[in-house]
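Reminder: ligand-aware prediction takes two inputs, not one.
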Amino acid sequence: MTSQATHTVTTPAPLEGKVALVTGGSRGIGAATALRLAREGADVAVTFVNGKEAAEDVAGAVRAMGRRAVALRADGADPNEAAGAVRRTAEALGGLDVLVNNAAVGVLGPLESLSLADVDRVLAVNVRGVFLACQAAAAIMPEGGRIVTVGSCMTQRVPGPGGTLYATSKAALTGLTKALARELGGRGITANVVHPGPIDTDMNPADGPFAAGQAAMTALGRFGAAEEVASTVAHLAGASYVTGAEFSVDGGHAA
Ligand SMILES: NC(=O)c1ccc[n+]([C@@H]2O[C@H](COP(=O)([O-])OP(=O)(O)OC[C@H]3O[C@@H](n4cnc5c(N)ncnc54)[C@H](OP(=O)(O)O)[C@@H]3O)[C@@H](O)[C@H]2O)c1
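Here is what comes back for the chain with NAP:
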């Protein structure tokens, strides 16, 4: 009879010891991303505006995985709050290694229907707030820092009318990402952008009035799940030699 030793092989969680901030982490893609980053070892801060309870639930789920978590009210439309979320995360969790710029508002409609207030709000949340968060993060991120920004498949292919303002805001993030990659590469900090296709969330429910047409635009013929975007964001949060890149997680919407 041969003796058998029992070997337990434990792989360290790839993001163990890292601190991540996910803006708009109370619901949808942001919530799925926060949970995924925690599963991979990170301590996580999430921001919200109205969804305090949902954000606290996400933070609770992160803590249940043995990680630290904090839910912060921070409106990306407010410049002080957009940058302040970075500072508050660092204060609460001891630094910042991963910034996920996820929060956004989607305002769609015919060009002539979009008011100046619409333009200002969408650009404030989707572009200015992201810029300011990146600026604040870059000031404190150590070598190995990761910036992952959530763009949209509408930067690659606009499937119909009504997307002028939203597509404008999301396209700006590609320019920001590439410029950040160049600016921060010397410090070992990466910046990448992920372009989701139609993903089943409150912003774009898979049973919504325009859902069938969106699903038909994809090669896979279906909506994606928030977790399917989160897995790519998490991969980029751990990837050391990928920067300035765009990733479509869109079921082939751009194919
Ligand atoms: N779903 C899609 O089909 C799709 C497709 C392409 C790209 N995207 C992009 O994916 C990202 C996430 O979208 P989602 O579908 O998960 O959206 P969602 O379900 O509507 O969730 C939006 C999240 O952003 C937060 N938020 C909204 N306005 C904010 C503000 N002014 N400041 C800070 N946080 C704010 C919300 O917080 P509260 O809970 O407090 O309101 C919530 O956590 C966005 O960048 C979106 O443009 C989505």
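The helical segments are 28-39, 52-64, 79-93, 116-140, 164-184, 211-217, 226-237. The domain at 19-249 is CATH 3.40.50.720 (Rossmann fold). We will return to this case in the review session.
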